[in-house]
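User: Could you go from structure to sequence for me? I need the amino acid at each position, not a summary. Structure tokens:
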């Protein structure tokens, strides 16, 4: 299976990804995670991406398309993949189609995490992450057993630098202007499934399972 998860920041893509990934043995490719790792390691790619990320703007299409092109070649991705946070512009979607087309492949399903903007600030400002595993917590909705500490490893949790109310505003603006057209692009191909992403995590998981069954 070749799946795309699309939704605004905080809509629950990163929370549902590990569940879908394990259930269907797919690889999980999250461009945001890859870019943050590059920023932290201060690689040339990270240096180029950092300014836009800090402001809540999108990184250039060429940079992210390059990352995805490379990542999809991994052996673990040959059975299928979940793209989380990519494509975020129509240009990225067209490039992705080109890449897949070369292998005679195409996207099977686009899961649209539909949700009202008003809910997202509370989700984003309460988010805590275990960087090395990508495990995500929320101070109110899914708190770790010990505040600030990962349940599994006991390692410290972090908050993302861009998870503030102010940067969220720019990220939402980018989502509506640049990413919503991607949903229409795939609607025209008849592969979009709309989810009720405002529901509790378990109910969203059931909706995903129904769509993929
Ligand atoms: P995204 O990857 O789409 O940006 P996340 O999956 O990281 O979003 O979720 C954002 C925050 O909201 C996290 O702190 C997460 O624990 C919490 N969260 C995720 N899904 C739900 C949900 N269905 N209901 C309530 N909180 C949720
Ligand atoms: P979110 O929690 O908002 O869904 P991500 O972790 O997916 O956030 O992305 C964080 C930041 O990384 C974005 O605000 C953007 O600057 C950059 N980014 C991630 N994926 C892409 C992409 N496909 N195209 C352009 N920029 C991206
Ligand atoms: P700066 O020096 O500008 O604070 P960092 O190198 O600390 O930049 O990293 C940028 C941001 O990304 C920080 O908020 C950091 O905590 C966060 N971060 C780094 N790696 C990850 C990851 N794998 N998942 C989520 N956030 C991460």
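Assistant: Here is the amino acid at each position, in order:
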């Amino acid at each position: 299976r070749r799946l795309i998860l699309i939704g605004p920041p905080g809509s629950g893509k990163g929370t549902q990804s590990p569940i879908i990934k394990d259930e269907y043995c797919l690889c999980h490719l999250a461009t945001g995670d890859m870019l943050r790792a590059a920023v932290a390691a201060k690689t040339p790619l990270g240096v180029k991406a950092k300014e836009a990320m800090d402001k809540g703007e999108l990184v250039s299409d060429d940079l992210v398309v390059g990352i995805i092109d490379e990542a999809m070649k991994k052996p673990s991705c040959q059975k299928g993949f979940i793209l989380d946070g990519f494509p975020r512009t129509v240009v990225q979607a067209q490039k992705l189609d080109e890449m897949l087309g070369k292998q005679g492949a195409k996207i099977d399903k686009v899961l649209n995490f539909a949700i009202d903007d008003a809910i997202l600030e509370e989700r984003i400002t309460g988010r805590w992450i275990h960087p090395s595993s990508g495990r995500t917590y929320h101070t109110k909705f899914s708190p770790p057993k010990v505040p600030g500490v990962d349940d599994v490893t006991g390692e410290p949790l972090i908050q993302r630098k861009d998870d503030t109310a102010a940067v969220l505003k720019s990220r939402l603006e980018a989502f509506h202007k640049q990413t919503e057209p991607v949903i229409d692009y795939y609607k025209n191909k008849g592969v979009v499934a709309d989810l009720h992403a405002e529901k509790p995590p378990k109910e969203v998981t059931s909706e995903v399972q129904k769509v993929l069954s």
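One structural detail worth keeping in mind: The two ends are 12 Å apart (CA to CA).
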